[in-house]
């Protein structure tokens, strides 16, 4: 039984080209993705570090990672995954303080 992914947050590296707008638009075009938020975390001479937040009804994480790689990027880590029929927001715990 496969449970749909509704939110996926990725930490990734990408080359300067394509730019952040084209990068976000291309990932947003993946099946199951309804929207993408791309935040530039850091930039240096050769690469940019992005935080990419995707939301949708049934995100295919493998297709997203393949798309990132086709654009010249590399997924460093998956920082958040929300699965199931509804989105559950993170709750604050004592460890978060």
UniProtKB/TrEMBL annotation:
Gene3D superfamilies: MTH889-like domain. It comes from the Archaea. Pfam families: DUF211. This is DUF211 domain-containing protein. It comes from Natribaculum luteum.
